[in-house]
Design brief:
Number of domains: 1
CATH topology: Arc Repressor Mutant, subunit A
Helix content: 40-55%
Structural class: alpha+beta
Strand order of the largest sheet: 1-4-3
Protein name: ArsR/SmtB family transcription factor
Number of strands: 5
Number of helices: 5
CATH architecture: Orthogonal Bundle
Keywords: DNA-binding, Transcription, Transcription regulation
InterPro entries: ArsR-like_HTH, HTH_ArsR_DNA-bd_dom, HTH_MetalResp_TranReg, WH-like_DNA-bd_sf, WH_DNA-bd_sf
Domain HTH arsR-type: 6-99
Organism: Actinomadura yumaensis
CATH superfamily: Winged helix-like DNA-binding domain superfamily/Winged helix DNA-binding domain
Oligomer: single chain
CATH class: Mainly Alpha
Length: 115
């Protein structure tokens, strides 16, 4: 598998980040990844097909919100909180607070067991 490209913090744009956060599934993925833990893709559960979930994860990665790491046949994803906070101070916390209060993305969850 080809190594995924991750934009450098200076390459992240507000338009790309906000565009990536314009979907409730992607907001839900950011919510579950906000705990700072790296998760296997198989641990992430959303009410969409696996191919659609993969698309959402790619959109988040391409915008710079997440980092994907491959280990053998498994893929892992983590939120790039430090890079986001450095590039757009306060944005992620504001989005997470609003998503929590408006219950956006609550239908996305993570299992504790690796899949």
């Amino acid at each position: 598998m080809k190594q995924a490209r991750h934009p450098e913090p200076g390459e992240m744009t507000l338009v790309a980040v906000l565009g990536a956060l314009s979907d409730p599934i992607r907001v839900g993925l950011v919510r579950v990844l906000a705990d700072g833990r790296e998760r296997g893709w198989g641990q992430l559960h959303a009410p969409v097909a696996k191919s659609t979930l993969s698309h959402h994860l790619r959109v988040l990665r391409d915008a710079g919100l997440t980092r994907t790491r491959q280990e053998g046949t498994r893929c892992f994803v983590e939120l790039r909180r430090d890079d986001l906070d450095a590039r757009f101070p306060g944005l992620l916390d504001s989005v997470l607070d609003a998503a929590h209060s408006d219950d956006i993305g609550a239908h996305v969850h993570v299992s504790d067991s690796p899949a």
